[in-house]
Amino acid sequence: MSASMQTRHRDLTLMAERLSCNPLAGWIAVGSVVFLLGGCSEGEAPPTPTTAAAPLAVDPDVARRRGLEPAAVARGADLYAAHCAECHGARAEGAPGWHKPGPDGKYPPPPLDGSAHAWHHPRAALRVTIQEGTARLGGNMPAWKGKLSDAEIEAVVDWMVARWPDEIHGAWREIEGKAARH
To answer: What is the C-alpha to C-alpha distance for residues 178 and 51, in angstroms, rounded to an integer?
Structure first.
């Protein structure tokens, strides 16, 4: 792990520890997830993703090494392509300019490929954001609860996690482990 990545990882680990033990900080974390996943709306045209290619397949051996079922990861890829890629991009690369607020003051859909902020959140936070959407928090992402089953949402999260680079995935596993202990 590079020195800058180690510093970033240490800082994120400390942040995760603080968030898991402080209810107010937990709400702040939920707000952060709005920035992470918010951006799409069923009622308005989403930003055009930068690529029209199909989602990248995940090597089944990588999925297994990460404790994921390859069939669930493949199902997650199909679900992502059908429900998420329109806003977050076919390769989960996010919308152009995702890091700057749009004319409506809301951030466009961010990357979910490990290059942005998704990996800073435990699985439970990712799941809740997908289920509930971000509209009540000021975002544009629709709620997927009732449209996707819990198993389907888990499969989408599995697909995202399986695609993250090893270094990012390792850092996320530590955050996930700390969240599970609290």
So the answer is: 35
